[in-house]
Amino acid sequence: MSYRLQRLPVAKPSVAFAARIASVVLALLTAGLVLKLVGMEPLALAGRVLKSTFGSSFGLEDLALLFTPLLYCGLAVAVALRIGAWNIGAEGQFNLGAFAAAGIALFVPGPDWAQLPAMAVTGALAGAAWILVPTLARAYAGVSELITTLLLNFVALLLVYWVSTGPWLDPSGHALATTARLPVSVPEFWGIVHWGLPVAVILAVGLAAVFAFTRWGYEVRIGGSNPGAARYAGMPVRRHLIAVMLLSGAIAGLGGMMEVAGTVGRLQGGISNNYGYLGIMVAVLARAAPLGTIATAFLMATILNGGIILQTQGLTTHTVLALTGLILLYAAIGDEAAKYRIVKLAKGA
Amino acid sequence: MAEPSIQSRLGLAPGTPPLVSLRGVGKVFPGVIANADVDLDVFPGEIHALLGENGAGKSTLMNILTGIYQPDEGEIIVGGRAVSFASPVDAIAAGIGMVHQHFKLVRAFTVAENIHLGWSETPRRISRAALEARTAELSSRLGLAVNPAARVAELSTGEQQRVEILRVLARKARVLILDEPTAVLTPAEARELFAALRAFVAEGNAVIFISHKLDEVLEIAHRVTILRQGRKVATDWTEACTEKSLAQQMVGREIVLSDMRGTDIGRIGAPVLALEGVSLMSEGVTLLKNVSLELRAGEILGIAGVAGNGQRELTQVMTGLAVPTTGRVWLEGADVTRAGARRIAAQGVGHIPEDRLHAGMAPALSITDNAVLREYAKPPLSLGPLFRPWRATRLAREIAAAAEVMVPSFEMPARNLSGGNQQRLVARREMRIASKVLVAAYPSRGLDVGAINTMMRYFTELRDAGVAVVLVSEELEELLTLADRIAVMFHGEIMGVVPAEGADIEAIGLMMGGRHAA
């Protein structure tokens, strides 16, 4: 008897799901092993992380505040993936959304009831504007959006650093590197958790419904899966590509607005905190399904929160980056491995 | 019956065994018989041509001989012993090597690196200079001039082919298989190749030469084996053959399929679709040249020609996927030259595309999504902007039932279906919308005889219902059986349109080769 690997045309969903779970578990085990080798106590650390995350309402509130921007960014990336585009620029669009919303709050006076909706719309539009050039370049010239969206991140990041330390610096002199506190904020509904969270969840459910139950969603699905077939059926592939990519940028921009007006309260450099990049992980792990991003954003938030706790134990922030990298690596291996099965061969066959 | 033996005609000692023999080789893929009961002997000193239409089973047979596939039936005999090759590595070790139509070279590597890649005789540690010296030595010994230090990406196609051949010969192949080697060569390069092949077989080796260029086969080969529908039709000495006789055997000595042409002359109605002086240029290349065609309700118009002579572009212009550079397209008297695929489909033109996996389906999406590609925007599937997946599944069930395709789950990706079933689903989907015209490109490609018959029955049903059918095919037999008229294409031009009844196969064959209708 000998064994041989046999490749299947598609992975069975149950096997693929098990591979996902296994990849997360393996990544945690690997990280634990490394920590053990450098003389830490991985089990004790894990216990502390779990206790301080889930053991108190403070922990849960912190978790929710990390979960919110991850969900916006994850949704942004997932939406773009639906039409076959890689939005690596959620980070930049998030920054731009925060920047534009802060600008409205600080410099455009208006009645309180109008201020927040105006900020949300401006934030979303700013995010869309930030992806406009990469979108048009992809749609009309075939320029890969991967590079263009990525490079614009650095521009957006530096722009926010500059305004928050320069022209928009808090005039009161109390703060060194932020704007003044915004006069309006997204209201809270539980502890320090603001309405940005439920809005994101509603957005995820809404997007899932749009993709499943509208003609537009069907056309985007076909266009993203096989543009040739979409053209054959006479669908406006380019128009859908542009619309979906702008929507993706707008979602990230809205996330930035919620962050600046809900969680942080001021515009400051680095407000995006790598959420845009982590959003790529969130979307990929969820296979670009909007409802799935709710679960994967939660997982990522837990890891991120764990990282913050680990920092208090003398570990660097890079531990978390390494852990997320491991998960993605194992998930990629698991995706490939799920396409195989082991078959027994009779000897000599 | 005192015919001289093969050995003596090749100038070999009596009783010299073949270098390689196939005995009763058969191979079946799901729904398709690729090869059945094929015998083949290749002797030392022989160039043996393998001739057949696309899909006749030439490539499968050679893939079996080189260990890429394992035969379901029959055996391979090398040096008097039955052998089985688990992979091309085994085949080359037994002295059988193949140069594929699409070269398998690493473009970023040098010639010397490509020659030595994956070769057991490559020393484990070797300097670049030594590698190149070994290559230069091989090159001069085998009489194939190559520059060992050149990168493959910088070489012409002819030079790359030489590298491929050298790669095979360096591994001491005695039987060299070439898959349509001249398709990528200039005439001068082809002459050089022929000279090299003659020199190779003069040393007691053999070449199997796959082609469908008749003149070339007659020029280079000693003997020729003709395959049709996976079976061997004949093996003949080329001296005894003419282009005509080879063509006849390739497409079928006699037409055995029953005549499916309509008999009622009165059924052919008014013109439905017309092309008027249509030309299509792309990046300076003329794809269609001044094509004028008129298609009438209730007729089947066959489009014959060797693939790649503008058939794809013709179907694209007819279905709105391409806008002609000049000329007009009329659908029932309305100018639809620039109407686009959606409007033309909505007006009752169905399209079974040439490459269904890339043009007609989204293979990664569900069978439901694929089945409703033409009707998703109409009620009851869509109400205004809303799409109703449950109605989509219901329609998908209907289409699958009409197509007689068993679908275990409509959520399953369409790529899990066999090629034949995909084709049936697409055909049924398109027939539902084809109230005026159905444009079908190579609908029987890759199908077995039963599935082809079903497909042909679909077309006659449509024809009898008054739909105009355009049938693009490489199988002349199919066109002669089914079509009312046959248009022959060559280099984007219509060489002539002849009535299928009483059509002269040779005349059509000559038009396929670029001669205008007499």
TrEMBL record, chain A:
Matching CDD domains: TM_PBP1_transp_TpRbsC_like
PANTHER family: ABC TRANSPORTER, PERMEASE PROTEIN (PTHR47089), GUANOSINE ABC TRANSPORTER PERMEASE PROTEIN NUPP (PTHR47089:SF1)
A GO cellular component annotation in the UniProt record: plasma membrane
Origin: domain of life: Bacteria
UniProt membrane topology term: Multi-pass membrane protein
Keywords: Cell membrane, Membrane, Transmembrane, Transmembrane helix
Membrane-crossing segments per the record: 21-43, 63-81, 93-110, 116-137, 149-169, 189-213, 241-258, 278-303, 315-333
Subcellular location: Cell membrane
Principal localisation: membrane
Keyword hit for Membrane: yes
Protein name as annotated: ABC transporter permease
UniProt GO MF annotations: transmembrane transporter activity
From TrEMBL, chain B:
Entry-linked InterPro entries: AAA+_ATPase, ABC_carbohydrate_import_ATPase, ABC_transporter-like_ATP-bd, P-loop_NTPase
Signal peptide residues on this chain, from the entry's feature table: none
Keywords tagged on the record: ATP-binding, Cell membrane, Membrane, Nucleotide-binding, Repeat, Sugar transport, Translocase, Transport
Keyword Nucleotide-binding: yes
GO molecular function, a single term: ATP binding
Nucleotide-binding listed as a keyword: yes
PANTHER family with a match to the protein in the record: CARBOHYDRATE TRANSPORT ATP-BINDING PROTEIN MG119-RELATED, GUANOSINE IMPORT ATP-BINDING PROTEIN NUPO
The name this protein goes by in its record: ABC transporter ATP-binding protein
Organism field: Paenirhodobacter hankyongi
